[in-house]
Structure formats: C-alpha cells, structure tokens
From TrEMBL, chain A:
<feature type="transmembrane region" description="Helical">
    <location>
        <begin position="96"/>
        <end position="121"/>
    </location>
</feature>
<feature type="transmembrane region" description="Helical">
    <location>
        <begin position="64"/>
        <end position="84"/>
    </location>
</feature>
<protein>
    <submittedName>
        <fullName>PTS system sorbose-specific iic component</fullName>
        <ecNumber>2.7.1.69</ecNumber>
    </submittedName>
</protein>
<feature type="transmembrane region" description="Helical">
    <location>
        <begin position="142"/>
        <end position="165"/>
    </location>
</feature>
<dbReference type="GO" id="GO:0016740">
    <property type="term" value="F:transferase activity"/>
</dbReference>
<keyword id="KW-0812">Transmembrane</keyword>
<keyword id="KW-0762">Sugar transport</keyword>
<keyword id="KW-0813">Transport</keyword>
<keyword id="KW-1133">Transmembrane helix</keyword>
From TrEMBL, chain B:
<dbReference type="InterPro" id="IPR050303">
    <property type="entry name" value="GatZ_KbaZ_carbometab"/>
</dbReference>
<dbReference type="GO" id="GO:0005886">
    <property type="term" value="C:plasma membrane"/>
</dbReference>
<feature type="transmembrane region" description="Helical">
    <location>
        <begin position="285"/>
        <end position="303"/>
    </location>
</feature>
<feature type="transmembrane region" description="Helical">
    <location>
        <begin position="261"/>
        <end position="278"/>
    </location>
</feature>
<dbReference type="Pfam" id="PF03613">
    <property type="entry name" value="EIID-AGA"/>
</dbReference>
<feature type="transmembrane region" description="Helical">
    <location>
        <begin position="124"/>
        <end position="148"/>
    </location>
</feature>
<protein>
    <submittedName>
        <fullName>PTS system, mannose/fructose/sorbose family, IID component</fullName>
        <ecNumber>2.7.1.69</ecNumber>
    </submittedName>
</protein>
<keyword id="KW-0472">Membrane</keyword>
<keyword id="KW-0812">Transmembrane</keyword>
Length: 269, 304
C-alpha cells in the first residue's frame, strides 16, 4: 500500500470507530466499512465482496442493554486490511474473516478500556458543568469520541505496519483467564451506574416499587415492555388510591435523606 | 408571565435532533450516555437559562446516568425539553421529576427499540445489502446505508416531536396537579424499572459446583439404549421434552442454589454495596476498576 492509501485507511478506520460507538448511522457495519476500505485502496469490488461475507456472520451482533457484542468495527476494518495486504484476491476472503473474528473479540477488550477511560472524562465534565462551561463539555464529549476512533484507527495502522503472522501469534497468546475475567467484570460494572441513580432518586414511597421491579424481572417471560406496563399501572394505581384515600397529602416527592430509610441505613453503617 | 414565556422553536428542536446522533460519543461505564444527553440538550439549556447558576444546574442535571436505545432517546428528549421549558418559565418541576421521567422511559423504550431495530429491521436491511455485496455488486452497501438512514432519521425526528407534544400536554395542566402526580408517578416507575434492570442487566454467575448427585434410572436419558440414527435422535428429544435430564448425574452449582432463593440476589447485593461505597465518597472509578480486578481474580480461583 502507498503512503496515501495508508493514511486514507487510517482515516476510514477512525470514522468507523466513531460510528461504532454512536451506533446510529452504521458506517461501521462490515458491508459498509469493508467497502470503504476497498474504495480507498482501489479494490472496491473486493472490499464489497468481503463486506457482504463478513456481514452475514456479524448480522446479529448488537449491543443490547448494557451488554456488548464483539467489535464488528474492528472486525470489518482488520479483515479488509488483511485481505488487501494478502494480495490473494477473492480467495483471501475466507482466511481474512477467520482472522477477523478473534480480532473482534480482542477488540472488545479495547472497547472496555476506552469505556473505562471515558469515566475520567465524565468526571471532568462534572467539573466543567459546575462552572457552566458549555464549550468545555462539548470539547470533552468529542475527546471521548476521538478515543473511540483511535480504538480502531491505531490497530488498523499497526496491522498495515506489522506482518499478519505476528498478529495471529499475538491473539493466540492472550490468556483465557484475562479475556473471560474482563467479560465477567463487564457484566458487573453496570451496577455502579444503577447505584448512582438509586442514590439520587430513592425516597420512602418509591422503595417498594424498586423491589417489585426486581422480583418481577425474574420472570423471564415478561419483556422489558411488559415490565414497563406493570410499572406504569402500579404507579397510576398508587396515585389513584392515594387520591381516594383522602388525608395523605403529607407525603413528599423529595429525595431528602430523612425521607429515605434504606439510604440512611447504608449511610450509617 | 405569559407574554415573555421562552419557547423552543422547531429550529431549536431540529438542532437537538442533529446533536442526538452523537449521543454515545463519550459513552462510559459509570453513567453511560450521560455526556451525550448533556451535549444534545445544550441548545435548550443555552436558550432557556441565562444565569450561570441555572445553566450549571441544568448541565449537572443532565450529566446523570442515562442509557437507552439510541433512537428511542429522542422521544425522551422531546418530553425532557417540554419539562425543561416549563421549569425555565417558572413551573414547579424539580430535579427528581426530570430524572424520574428520563429514567422511567429509558428502560421500556430500550426494551422496545432493541428487538425492533437491532434484531428485526437492521438484520433485514443488512441481509438485503449483504446478499447483493457478496457477489461484488457495489449497490449492496448503498442499499443498506440509504434505507437504514432514511428510516433512522424519520424515527428519531418524529418520535422526538411526539415526545415534545406529549410533554407539553402534561405540563399545560398545572392547575389539576397533574404534573405533580406525573412526576411522582415517574419516580415510582423509575425505581420499578431500575429494580428490574438490575435483575436483568447486572450479570453475576457463581460457578462452583455444590453437589453432584447420581440420579435414579428413568430420570435421565439412557444414551446406550437409544436406537441408532434419526430414530434415536427422535427418542432422545421426546424423552428430553418429557423432563428427563441429559446426563446420569445432576450437577448443582452455587448459582442454582442462589436462584432458588431469589434470582439476581448477587446483582442486588452488588448494587447495594456500590450504593454504600458511593455514599461513603468512594470514587466510582475506584469501584469500577475494583470490580474488574475482582472479576478476574474470582474467575481465576473458579468462583465466577
């Protein structure tokens, strides 16, 4: 690849990385991402073919709730680079995909690192917010996105600079305990966010609703929509019954400490 | 007060629609889409609040935890905009009310958006594009990209407008105390949703085996005695459907035992532990890194 092509591929990889975190315009879907890399390297048709094949594998990968799918963005970009570098034409599509899928799983590790790093950005934003520094918040928001772009752009650049065989060895050297442990941790850290919301919203009158939601969610047949319906109905019923009961106007909706028995207990321990 | 009411125009709302495409840009493990929410709502914050203190308060309010399907964030923004508008014009809408509305809506809407967009519309459009692309047809990527983005833009804009109108309708009826009721109801709904999300989305599975019991004859499928070939398969499935287990021994893990108490108990415990640590001013970053380290250590010793 010429220097200009390498630069163009890195730019595409950066855009694809940004798109994959925002997950709306969907340039990161392999069918689009591989085609773009094919376009800038002058092998559009080959890129489109690879994109189509890889897409059939990654079609169902989706970030649902707080869970994360393997990194389709890195899979698409990396396999396209491997294919173009390999110079085998359409015959190289199979092996390129075979290498890309473990890369997509490894890419999950990179995603986790960035998403942890952006926690620091969230705290900087808090400080900016205290000063009502709107431009500061906007800038840090996009610094966060830049990290996500680099998450794909840097591996793409490395892939073009180092031989493919080394990549394969590196992937095989990743210990199972590290990848599995990171995945398990990823399933647990979402609790931190919920804890913050609860600390903010909890008051005496809403705790029963929390436990109702928790207990009912164990029934797997209930989708989140049905749970939503139940939640709305319970709240409406509560308010309606309270209205007909008469003398219950004293209850407040504040989140003050004295109003939150469980919060007080947690604070006092 | 009626004369100098500040209103968000259609142009303002369109600006925020465009900004919402960057909702997840600074996604983080602590508060997820919070930076994107603040970023999206900045035009409204600028227009509605002029004093530094009010702006700071509004920014902080929208830097709280938020996570939903990226398209389904738009109706939530619509309602939030209506509430912020009322607040800026002097109505009694407190922070807990706005947070309650956002949190109450995000769970169910994510529950609607994930299956609809991620598991139905996107695979359909992707397979359309991919099937063309596999044979090298350059139209493949275009078909997917254009179809998807027309759909996405329409969904995002019209649901946001719908949310805004619905939100305004709620706040218009101030005299009947409807807003007060809705905001209290939203907090209840919010807590209900958080409770169920902890059960569904915080995943902890303890792997240690508590007991291995040899089962009685007839309680498991006796693979040796099945007929060969497809007949055997049929027999095996019939027996499995009748409730027989797959192996001769019944393995019970610690998780199975915990699930018999209350499913998700460990997730609940972890959440309360996080609440406790946060109340004692432990930094969320320390908690997050600690959880990762513990997860790896527990996995190595075989607990998780």
């Amino acid at each position: 690849m010429s220097t200009i092509q390498i630069i163009l591929v890195v730019i595409v990889a950066f855009i694809v990385g940004c798109s994959s975190v925002n997950d709306q315009i969907e340039t990161y879907q392999p069918v689009v991402a591989c085609s773009l890399i094919g376009l800038v390297t002058g092998q559009l048709e080959l890129g489109v073919m690879l994109g189509g094949s890889l897409q059939l594998i990654t079609m169902g990968w989706a970030n649902v709730g707080a869970a994360m799918a393997p990194d389709a963005a890195l899979a698409g970009v990396a396999s396209a680079i491997i294919l173009i570098e390999g110079n085998q034409g359409a015959q190289g599509i199979g092996p390129a995909i075979a290498l890309a899928v473990p890369l997509a799983v490894a890419g999950l590790g990179l995603t986790m690192i960035v998403r942890t790093a952006t926690v620091f950005i969230a705290h900087i934003m808090d400080k900016r917010a205290e000063k009502a520094d709107i431009n500061g918040i906007q800038a840090w928001h996009f610094i966060g996105m830049t990290l996500q772009g680099l998450r794909v752009a840097i591996p793409a650049l490395l892939l073009m600079l180092i031989p493919v065989s080394l990549v394969r060895q590196g992937l095989e050297a990743m210990p199972e305990w590290l990848t599995a442990g990171m995945t398990i941790g990823g399933g647990m850290v979402v609790a931190v966010g919920y804890a913050m919301v609860i600390n903010m919203m909890s008051s005496r009158e809403v705790w029963p609703f929390f436990f109702l939601g928790f207990a009912l969610a164990a029934i797997k047949q209930l989708t989140l929509i049905s749970l939503g319906i139940i939640g709305v109905c319970l709240a409406i019923l509560f308010l309606a019954l309270e209205g007909s009961g008469g003398s219950s106007n004293g209850s407040s909706n504040g989140s003050g400490d004295s109003d939150d028995p469980l919060g007080d207990i947690l604070e006092d321990i | 007060m009626e004369e100098k009411k500040i209103k968000l125009t259609k142009a303002d709302r369109f600006k925020m629609f465009l900004r919402s495409y960057f909702l997840l840009s600074s996604f983080n493990y602590e508060r997820m889409q919070n930076g994107g929410v603040a970023y999206t709502l900045i035009p409204a914050i600028k227009k509605l609040y002029s004093s530094k203190a009010d702006r700071a308060a509004a920014l902080k309010r929208h830097l709280e935890f938020f996570n939903t399907h990226p398209f389904m964030a738009n109706p939530i923004f619509g309602v939030t905009l209506a509430l912020e508008e009322e607040r800026a014009n002097g109505a009694n809408v407190d922070d807990a009310a706005i947070s309650g509305v956002k949190i109450g809506m995000m769970g169910p809407l994510a529950g609607a958006g994930d299956p609809l967009f991620w598991f139905t519309l996107r695979p359909i459009m992707l397979s359309l594009g991919a099937s063309l692309a596999v044979s090298g047809n350059v139209a493949g990527p275009f078909v997917f990209f254009i179809l998807w983005n027309i759909m996405a833009a329409a969904v995002k804009w019209y649901t946001q407008e719908f949310g805004y109108r619905a939100g305004t309708a709620i706040t218009d009826d101030l005299s009947g105390g409807l807003l007060q009721k809705v905001t209290r109801g939203a907090s209840m709904m919010g807590m209900f949703v958080i409770g169920s999300l902890i059960q569904r989305w915080v995943s902890i599975t303890f792997t240690p085996v508590v007991s291995t019991v040899k089962q009685q004859k007839g309680a498991y499928i006796d693979w040796e005695k099945l007929p060969a070939g497809a007949k055997g398969l049929k027999e095996a499935f019939t027996q499995y459907a009748a409730g027989r287990s797959l192996s001769e021994t019944k393995v019970t893990t610690l998780q199975d035992n915990l699930d018999q108490l209350v499913p998700g108990l460990a997730a609940l415990g972890l959440t309360f532990l996080c609440m406790y640590l946060l109340k004692h001013k432990v930094s969320p970053i320390v908690i997050i890194l600690g959880i990762f380290v513990l997860a790896i250590v527990f996995h190595v010793i075989g607990l998780l």
